[in-house]
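Hi C.,

You asked whether I'd gotten around to modeling the 294-residue construct. I have! Everything is below, sequence then structure, no commentary in between.
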Amino acid sequence: MNRKWICLALALMMTLTAGASLAEGWGQEPLCFGNQPTYAAYDDQDHLKINILKVDQSPKLVYFVIDVQISEPGVLSTVFHNDKVFEAENDKQRQSRMEKTAVLETIAENHGAVLAVNCDFCGYHENGVIIRNGVLCRAKKTNKLDMLIIDENGDFSLHYDRSGDNPAELAQDLLARNVWQTIEFGPALVENGEALPLDNKTHVVSTRSSQLEPRTGIGQVGKLHYVIILVEGRRDNYSEGISLQGFQQLFLEYGAQTAINLDGGGSAKVYFYNQVLNRPTSPTRQVSDALVFK
């Protein structure tokens, strides 16, 4: 039995104890996918509980729903492959940029993550106000990105009307509010438990198309309770992908009160417990940053 299947077997075995701990543990909310069978799980009995649902409707649609519950906000963080990723941002040479990127699993393993997903690839563009782990990395103008704000309590909020942004002032306001992370991608999908309009907005990802794609997104269900959804795509006879409209509906179905679309396509990848769970269309695609739980 190879390493991948040994790791998955261990993860699956952990579901035997996860159910009891969720009921008896430290004030957990119910799983966002209810009583549907858990595909894999992790429970350290202290600060991190992960339960994963795999929905297989092949040959058209396959997706993972990842329910994450944490005991303190710092369990959720962001990491870079190279902490110098924001140096020489005006250097357009691909070789220079690639020195600051790696495959997701390398980033996750180097930072001791239990769970990691691709984030917003902010090290590969020059836009937006980027705060990571409480540190301001960049304050630049953007018209095409929506912002997910994660505060010091682990709560999500959105900033998507960028027309009046003054990047420097916005950055200082966010820091004064003890914002811990800003994720710049989009579009924003759900706010206050309701779908946000997706029409007539210009983003790095088109919202006016029903094109089916692999997608990654994250939402907040409740206090220190999150849902990550990764949809497989571009795989004939396995999974075609999903439109942004369909992706939005998944987050509503699984109880997200706030949700945003992250980098996807060939970058859509989920690392869990020493392995990549999904079947990425570009397995060797390198990214600059990851959203991690550890």
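If it helps when you're writing up: Residues 36-293 form one domain.

Thanks,
B.
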